[in-house]
Specification:
Layout lengths: L1 H16 L25 H9 L14 H9 L1 H19 L9 E5 L6 E2 L1 H6 L11 H10 L3 E2 L1 H13 L2 E9 L3 H10 L7 E5 L7 H14 L3 E7 L14 E3 L9
Parallel strand pairs: 1-4, 1-6, 4-5, 6-7
Antiparallel strand pairs: 2-3
Helix pairs in contact: 4-7
């Protein structure tokens, strides 16, 4: 099944390229996970453990769950899960009383939170997390500025702006590829923000330390973090996390 899946991904890449650039489209004829179960590993349970952070410090998707993760990410269930998170975030945001002084901010991560790299994973047949991360290949992909919007997150982004929030993008994307990344974000609908924070050459430490430090800088500058949204737990834990956090699903990789 794995070999067939890789061939299917190569075919789907062509289909993806011909479709609207700011949408995630249904690329596989499956509704989602399909409840796939393997003799030694229940992949539904594995994904639940990942999303709840009961499974930590993992490096690769288990081989027997690679197809499962691919079907999930390219199926309806992933988009439904993202929409659910975004809808709950909007309900929370609407309940807040903003001061109107421009200091109420909402922090978004980028990769797999607001911008999806699914075309990269499909095109390169990288087995959706079952193969090691290749930084060179991924940087080349970022330079193409061809990522697509996650529809629920883009809708939430526009709703938050309408409510009066200032938007801050806080990403582990390297500052060296800032131009194509910013261009990509604008092209898919994220056209305004208060700050766009990328990882510079002098930013060291773990993802938790990096993002905690940047959030602390924001609060020291007088901003109030009313909401914080990311696909990794390292986006949402540590210090200065904000009033409330929201995690979107991502069973493809783990960043500690």
């Amino acid at each position: 099944m794995g070999f067939t899946f890789l061939i299917l991904m190569a075919t789907l890449a062509t289909t993806f390229a011909s479709q609207t650039p700011n949408q995630i489209h249904l690329l596989m004829p499956h509704s989602g996970s399909g409840g796939l179960k393997h003799p030694d590993l229940n992949c539904n349970s594995w994904r639940l453990a990942v999303e709840t952070s009961n499974l930590k410090d993992w490096t690769l998707v288990p081989d027997e769950c690679a197809d499962y993760v691919g079907h999930y990410m390219l199926g309806k269930q992933y988009r439904a899960d993202c929409d659910f998170v975004a809808n709950e975030a909007y309900k929370y945001a609407k309940s807040l009383n903003l001061t109107g002084d421009g200091k109420d901010i909402w922090i978004f991560d980028i990769d797999e939170t607001t911008l999806s790299n699914l075309p990269y994973y499909a095109r390169n047949s990288v087995a959706f997390g079952a193969l090691p991360y290749n930084s060179t290949a991924f940087d080349l992909w970022v330079a193409e500025a061809a990522g697509v919007a996650i529809p629920g997150s883009l809708k939430l982004y526009n709703q938050l702006i309408e409510l009066g929030f200032k938007i801050v993008f806080l990403t582990g994307t390297k500052q060296a590829v800032s131009e194509p990344r910013i261009r990509n974000m604008k092209n898919i609908g994220y056209t305004k923000w208060e700050k766009f924070i990328l990882k510079g050459t002098n930013d060291h430490g773990t993802a938790v330390q990096y993002k905690s430090g940047k959030r602390k800088e924001l609060e020291e500058a007088g901003y109030r973090i009313r909401g914080n949204m990311g696909d990794q737990w390292s986006d949402l834990i540590g210090t200065n996390t904000g009033d409330r956090t929201f995690k979107v699903p991502d069973p493809m990789y783990y960043i500690g």
